Amino acid sequence: MDVTANNKRVIVALDVQGREDAMDLAKALQGSGCWLKVGLELYAYTGPAMIQELKALGFPIFLDLKLHDIPTTVERAIRGFIQSGVDMINVHCSGGYDMMARSAHAVKEAGSKLGSVPKVIGVTVLTSISENQFRQEMGVQRKLTDHVVELAKLAEKAGLDGVVASALEAREVRRNTSPGFLIVTPGIRPAWSEAHDQMRVLTPYEALEAGSTYLVVGRPITRAEDPRDALERLWVR
What we know:
Its EC number is 4.1.1.23. Belongs to the OMP decarboxylase family. Type 1 subfamily. The chain contains twelve helices and eight strands. It has helices at about 5, 20-30, 40-45, 50-55, 70-80, 95-115, 130-135, 145-160, 165-175, 205-210, 220, 225-235, and strands spanning about 10-15, 35-40, 60-65, 90, 120-125, 160-165, 180-185, 215. It has an eight-stranded parallel beta barrel, surrounded by seven helices. It is globular, with a radius of gyration of 17 Å. The relative contact order is 0.14.
């Protein structure tokens, strides 16, 4: 088992409320090979300056803001967000084809001018939503997996680099998209951790075997007494 190679496929979610906590975690994980995710919570407290500090420590950064608005607004906003030098950013697939296509174009155009083009991916269905909630609360009649696959196919057609999808849908997404299409999977829980508020979860190895490209892991690492040790223990079967 090549732990370093596996760590490069891990995105650690810095879901904390301030710079100090984020930097403590980042320093504990520095040199491990993993990515870091700056989500809505951390970004709300620290803004783009946090991204630049984390980049300075050598981490690839996934800016997870799940943009979802009319196409023009998302296109203009995404050009601003990537000025901070992020390596990956996302939008909601449910924003539709035009929104995704214009986002992909904006990222490529603006990124080229900066000398580095980030990956842009689409959120399918949040991993906190169960099959029952999907049908009863959201009123969608087709199966959740079928819905995720159709959104992934639309995202690829629109020019996105990949999607965010549960590991439970990863196999079908992989089967229905090109080999290089990215599948970023949240809700990863090693066998020794709790599921918390995630509904559709798998272990790291199960997710990789299902076709996931990157694994997003939060609390099992960030709330551990030793985050670096917890990262390494992801790969203990």
